[in-house]
Design brief:
By secondary structure, the chain is mostly beta strands. It has one domain. Helix content is about 5%, strand content about 30%. The protein has one helix and five strands. The strands form two sheets. Strands 1-2-3 form a three-stranded antiparallel beta sheet, with no helix packed on it. The chain has a two-stranded antiparallel sheet with strand order 4-5. The chain binds zinc ion (2 copies). One zinc ion (ZN) binds next to β5 and α1.
């Protein structure tokens, strides 16, 4: 069993989470198919925490968490958690076509 599958409440909404649960990327307009495992999670715990929204995103829309934080971040949470006065060498550049 482990963390394979579970049910959580996110923003008052009950959702199924886990590797076996297929979903689409939570980024608006992205239709990439993913699952709700930790690999696609914004944050390090299902449902999110104070640094993350708990959304699930494809690899294109998931970024490294700021230094000292665990897991991945969506672009919104990443910007929110980043220090704007500090330029990181490995910051990802996002271009819109
Ligand atoms: Zn997020
Ligand atoms: Zn996506």
């Amino acid at each position: 069993m482990g963390n394979m599958h579970g049910t959580i409440y996110r923003n008052g909404e009950k959702i199924d989470v886990g590797y076996g649960v297929t979903a689409t990327c939570d980024q608006p307009d992205c239709t990439e198919e993913i699952d709700r495992g930790l690999a696609y999670l914004c944050g390090s715990v299902h449902g999110g925490d104070e640094y993350s929204c708990g959304g699930y995103f494809c690899g294109q829309h998931l970024y490294m968490a700021p230094e000292g934080h665990h897991g991945n971040r969506c672009i919104r949470c990443r910007d929110h958690g980043a220090d704007p006065t500090e330029d990181s060498d490995d910051a990802m550049v996002v271009t819109f076509h």
